[in-house]
Amino acid sequence: MSLPPGFLDELRARVSLAQIVGRKVTWDMRKSNQGRGDWWAPCPFHQEKTASFHVDDRKGYYYCFGCHAKGDAISFLRETENLGFMEAVEALAREAGMEMPARDPKAAEKADRRARLAEVMEQAVRHYRLMFATAAAGPARDYLAGRGLDTEACARWEIGFAPDTRQGLFQHLTGKGVPAEDVIAAGLAALPEGGGAPYDRFRGRIIFPIRDGRGRAVALGGRAMDPNARAKYLNSPETELFDKGRTLFNLARAREAVGKGAPLIVAEGYMDVIALAEAGFAGAVAPLGTAITEEQLEMLWRLAPEPIVALDGDAAGLRAAMRLVDLALPRLQPGRSLRFCLMPAGQDPDDVIRAGGAAAMAALLGRAEPMVRLLWRRETEGKVFDSPERKAALDQRLREAIRRIPDAGLRRHYGEEIAALRQALFRPAGPSSRGPAAGRKRSKWAPAGPSPALRRSPLAADPAAAERLREAVILAALLAHPVLLPDFDSALERLDCLDPEHERIRAALLAELHACGETALAAVPEGVRRRLGDGPLEKLRSLSHLRVVPGLKPGDGPELARKSIEDAFTRLIAERGWRAEVEEATAEIAGLADEMVTWRLGRAGEERHRALMGVSEDETEFVRAENGLLIDRREWEARRARLEAVDFRRRKRRRDNS
Predict the structure, then answer these.
(1) Using one digit for the tens of pLDDT, what is the confidence trace for 270-322?
(2) Which end of the chain has the least Cβ crowding within 10 Å, N or C?
(3) Whole-number Å distance between alpha carbons of 247 and 277
């Protein structure tokens, strides 16, 4: 339904966000300032002990400096209570004493129908609970007792029983006035394909209610008592209430437990979740008969930044873990990942708890592995790498996996971890396994610093000359191939040219591009010439260096020029970023003993070297780590950066004194 203008603004003004949030958190009164409406608390969306969740009650917004959750009162209710937008608005309106506008008839009808189906589901849960107490459910109660669930536990989980009758539930509900079409729409009964009377979907099964994040019964799960049943476990079909790809078993209870500090554990099925929760691991959830979906993964991350995935220790469990790795890789962020806890072979969490108790399960959870280890395990377990080709294939698969991670810093850390694992596999410690290289202190290929010829070159005498040459490559290539200008428009706007003539050409290029538009790019070079005259352009084209640049040689096309431009921009950014880092770190130096600053300089030098040498991030991190180049280069770059920082400081002092 649509809301009238100003309704939401008035609603937000009437409610106190701090009061709403205060029901879910404990305020840190040492940091909070009640008089200013400035409130701080541990974040309700992720596990933490410090108060990084901030509420500005006057503005009506919250923000977490840890997980970056943000929003207003409406979004807070939606996230914490799993409400739809209009449901959250209605809840706040009731609290503020505001009357909701008249609803759209179709939307009202749909909401009323969902509420009616939810009530039908509740009636079904109550009916199956009554059947659980009958003599027919004796074998079911015995089975559950053998799984460690007593009467009180069965009551806590509202476990029921569906007798093996064709219309037991259908007749019960319709006898109470529930329309037959509602029983079918709720997924409790189905119509035969050949026609005839509806029949119960659940027969001869132990029944587990499935509730959504608000605690409403939306579906049922049933475990067959007949060992020859076609499906051991059966869930409700998808309905207006139930979307199995967006629902997690035990979500409402787990959210509350995780908010109090319990770990979030993802198991495979109902019995695993119930066993975990009864053993004290209350933050357990499970998907419903399918692999974890993207939506479920996002739901998990809203509860905890690093859920523990506890899977059965069989081939199926391992395959499920590997599928989840592929799903998670492109969605990883700093501070948001998964850990994996694979059970011993042939066991599930319920087996582990029954055999060794909660302590055995806690020990396994404490040894849960980070996702990078599972990625490595997938690519190496059971495989032989006895040839360069097989090793290269492994490197390629790992590079492709790491490239899917969107955050550059996180990719780098994955690369570093893979480098360590790779070295442990191919270069195990100990003189007996290292061959003729044993005892070598340093790779003979390690860079030893600039050669005498390089030190005598003009580029070494004037480091800025290299930057001016790259500026020239960018400008000359764009003038020669103006069709590329739209692709580099924003990068050209940010380019700060060292050479004044280059700066004039850059400004003229942008002016002509905006004047001519993308439909008349061929006219841009002539427009630049009219603005500046022939002198600056002839001087640019006369640079001998440009004669060998791909894209500027006779006959070269725009694609070669594109690569040259991209390369020049990459190297310029790396060079200037490195210099800025050195300058910033130098300002913080309080003596060469500052290891943190030294580390920053070494990392900046490494980034610069990667860009200047054309080495990709993941290649530097693990493909070249085997022969020791990475370690030696870092040492050399860090030492060189330290010396350059000291020299920079001395030159700066001389300038200041003069």
Answers:
(1) 999 999 999 999 999 999 877 899 989 988 987 888 999 998 877 788 888 89
(2) C
(3) 18
Nearest alpha carbon to residue 124 among 66, 205, 193:
205
Alpha helix locations (H) across 66-196?
73-81, 85-96, 105-132, 138-146, 151-156, 168-175, 180-185
> CATH number, domain at 92?
3.90.580.10
**Which has the higher per-residue pLDDT, 253 or 578?**
253
Encode pLDDT of 543-588 as tens digits.
Answer: 888 888 888 888 888 888 898 898 888 888 777 766 665 555 554 4
pLDDT at position 78 is 86
Q: Distance of CA 350 to CAs 275, 285, 328, Å?
A: 5, 14, 26
Best CA proximity match to 573, nearest among 602, 544, 612, 623:
612
Question: CA-CA distance, 647 to 653, in Å (whole number)?
Answer: 10
Q: How many residues make up the chain in this entry?
A: 658
Helices (runs of H) and strands (runs of E) counted in the chain: 29, 15
Structure tokens at 65: 């400096």
Residue partners of 151: CB distance under 8 A and separation at least 6: none
Residue 306 has a pLDDT of 93
Q: Look at residue 520 and tell me whether its pLDDT is greater than 60.
A: yes
% pLDDT > 90, the chain: 35
Smallest Cα–Cα separation from 644: which of 449, 443, 444, 465? 449
**Alpha carbon distance 89, 111 (integer Å):** 14
CA–CA gap between residue 75 and residue 57 (Å, rounded): 15
pLDDT(32) > 70: yes
Domain-located, residue 143: yes
The answer to whether residues 188 and 201 touch, using CB atoms and an 8 Å cutoff, is yes
Secondary structure class of 223 (helix, strand, coil): strand
Asked if pLDDT for residue 191 goes beyond 90, the answer is: yes
CB 325 within 8 A of CB 371: yes
- Would you give the end-to-end CA distance of the chain in angstroms? 72
Amino acid in position 277: A
Q: How far apart are CA 276 and CA 279, in angstroms?
A: 5
Whether residues 250 and 215 fall in one domain? no
CB 172 within 8 A of CB 301: no
Q: Are 231 and 115 contained in the same domain?
A: yes
| Residue 162, H or E segment | strand 160-162
Confirm whether 463 is domain-assigned.
Answer: no
Positive or negative, the CA dihedral 562, 565, 571, 572 is: negative
- pLDDT higher at 628 or 324: 324
Residues 111 and 232 placed together within one structural domain of the fold: yes
Instruction: Name every residue whose Cβ is closer than 8 Å to that of residue 102 and which is 6 or more positions away in sequence.
Output: none
DSSP 362-378: HHHHHTPEEHHHHHHHH
Q: Which residue in this structure is represented by tokens 């300032």?
A: 33
> Is the same domain home to 92 and 53?
yes
Are 473 and 508 in contact, with CB atoms under 8 Å apart?
no
Pairing of strands 339-345, 308-313: parallel
Q: How do 308-313 and 233-235 pair as beta strands?
A: unpaired
Domain that holds residue 74: 7-96
The count of domains in the chain is 3
